[in-house]
UniProtKB/TrEMBL annotation:
It is found in: Membrane. GO terms for cellular component: membrane. This is MAPEG family protein. Its main location: membrane. It comes from Paracoccus caeni. Keywords: Membrane, Transmembrane, Transmembrane helix. Pfam families: MAPEG. The lineage of its organism: Bacteria, Pseudomonadati, Pseudomonadota, Alphaproteobacteria, Rhodobacterales. Coiled coil: none annotated.
Amino acid sequence: MTPEITVLALAGLLQGIQFATFAVPANLELGTKVTMGPRDKEPQLSPRLGRLHRALSNHFEGLILFTLAVVVVTLGDASSGFTATCAWIYLLARIAYVPAYALGLVPWRSVIWATGFAATMLMILAALFS
């Protein structure tokens, strides 16, 4: 297994942890009647819970691009020390992003996001030009 695929697997586990980090407080705050219901109306979330929800959604979006980068690197047989480092930077940025967003750390949340995004784009570029 390439380092990039290992990091992708860990990023998938991180997504699960992020889901639990949001779901447990959501059930406590909103109650199971709301969280298990059809949610025809968007429930009002506390500021921190709203940030956890948006961080979860953001990771789904970022994970799509990162998965694409890993596939391009892997199928293009372009795995290298550089792409492996980029993959690890992406994962570390995603780990740091959750508390930065939950705590409302401005501008660090955006800096952390940009770091993970740049690492993903650099992986794709490295695969294209290898």
